[in-house]
């Protein structure tokens, strides 16, 4: 953490994370908290991850900070059984509904996509506005998945991302330009659907495209927000707030930070330079 991960991870404890959320809120930024962890293969670990999510919702409510919760269902035992994961999701969403908060289910690798959709559909029908999903632009099937979700539900809060997992060209666009094009396509599509769009990007082209599109189509600012990762382009995050846009920061915390941190380096190798530089600071 001292060698650079702290740039992207808001501490190892929930207390540290809540303090960072409080600081972000003071600058007009809203947050989604994520207790790091994925691919657990032990029921006790899955229960512990579930309890961590419940603790996050309690801490948000008790502290009064403006944040919701993001989670990965593999951390809740999805690889052990669908039923176990559903049991844990019900506990979490019961509490989110009690506090009138919101839980975002992160989309993971392609191998988990179908079961994630199945669980999400079941939960969406029961918990409505309190649960949302992430959609990845680099998958060929994304547009069809979005059309189904938008048509099937009265409200559909989606976080739109390009995608951060290594996937086969059989299921995902292998070319960055194709991913970028599809990303703009799904942004336009979801904004025009009338549903809430969380445009999760650090790409100036996508940000400017979104600004122009909502202005051209008279889409109110209340129908979308920008999202960025904690520690990535913080100046731009604050500029968007000053311009009057909602800006939500994805704030991860916890001991199991290595996988998340590694993906941030893989996505943008320049981040590695930051870490190397820190290694030689006194």
Secondary structure: elements and pairs:
Layout: H1 14-26, E1 30-35, H2 43-63, E2 67-71, H3 82-98, E3 103-105, H4 113-127, E4 131-136, H5 142-152, E5 158-161, H6 176-193, E6 197-200, H7 204-216, E7 224-229, H8 234-242, E8 247-253, H9 258-267, H10 270-279
Parallel strand pairs: 1-2, 1-8, 2-3, 3-4, 4-5, 5-6, 6-7, 7-8
Helix pairs in contact: 2-3, 3-4, 6-7
What can you tell me about this protein's structure?
- It is a single chain.
- The protein is of the alpha/beta class and 282 residues long.
- The protein has a single domain, classed as Alpha-Beta Barrel (TIM Barrel).
- Helix content is 49%, strand content 15%.
- The protein contains ten helices and eight strands.
- β7 (224-229), α8 (234-242) and β8 form a beta-alpha-beta unit.
- It is globular.
Could you list some keywords that capture this structure?
282 residues; disordered C terminus; eight-stranded parallel barrel; 8 strands; TIM Barrel; alpha/beta; single chain
Structural class: alpha/beta
Strand order of the largest sheet: 1-2-3-4-5-6-7-8
Number of helices: 10
Instruction: Give the number of DSSP strands.
Output: 8
- CATH topology value: TIM Barrel
Question: Which geometry do the CA atoms define?
Answer: globular
Global Rg = 18 Å
Helix content estimate: 40-55%
How many structural domains does the protein architecture include? 1
| Multimerization state | single chain
CATH architecture verdict: Alpha-Beta Barrel
Distance between the termini: 15 Å
The run of helices and strands is HEHEHEHEHEHEHEHEHH
Point out poorly predicted stretches. 271-282
Fraction of residues in β-strands: 5-15%
- Which CATH C-level class is it? Alpha Beta
Query: Biggest β-sheet: count, sense, barrel?
Result: 8 strands, parallel, barrel
- How much is the average pLDDT? 91
Binding site for substrate: 72, 263-264
Domain Proline dehydrogenase: 18-274
Cofactor: FAD
EC number: 1.5.5.2
């Amino acid at each position: 953490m001292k060698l650079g991960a702290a740039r992207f991870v808001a501490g190892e404890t929930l207390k540290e994370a809540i303090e960072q959320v409080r600081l972000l809120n003071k600058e007009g930024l809203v947050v989604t908290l994520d207790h790091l962890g994925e691919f657990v293969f032990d029921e006790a670990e899955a229960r512990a991850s579930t309890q961590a999510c419940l603790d996050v919702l309690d801490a948000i409510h008790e502290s009064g900070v403006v944040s919701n919760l993001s989670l990965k269902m593999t951390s809740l035992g999805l690889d052990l059984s669908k039923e176990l994961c559903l049991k844990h999701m019900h506990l979490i969403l019961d509490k989110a509904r009690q506090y009138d908060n919101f839980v975002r289910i992160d989309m993971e690798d392609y191998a988990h996509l179908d079961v994630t959709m199945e669980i999400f559909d079941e939960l969406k029908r029961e918990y409505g506005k309190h649960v949302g999903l992430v959609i990845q632009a680099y998958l060929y099937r994304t547009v069809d998945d979005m059309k189904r979700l938008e048509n099937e539900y009265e409200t559909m809060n989606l976080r739109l991302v390009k995608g951060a997992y290594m996937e086969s060209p059989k299921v995902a666009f292998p070319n960055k330009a194709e991913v970028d094009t599809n990303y703009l396509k799904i942004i336009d599509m979801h904004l025009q659907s009338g549903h809430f769009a969380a445009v999760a990007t650090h790409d100036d082209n996508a940000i400017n495209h979104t600004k122009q599109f909502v202005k051209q189509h008279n889409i109110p600012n209340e129908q979308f927000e920008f999202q960025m990762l904690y520690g990535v382009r913080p100046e731009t995050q604050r500029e968007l707030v000053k311009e009057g846009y909602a800006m939500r920061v994805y704030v991860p915390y916890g001991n199991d930070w290595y996988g998340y941190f590694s993906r941030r380096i893989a996505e943008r190798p320049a981040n590695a330079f930051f870490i190397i530089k820190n290694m030689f600071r006194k």
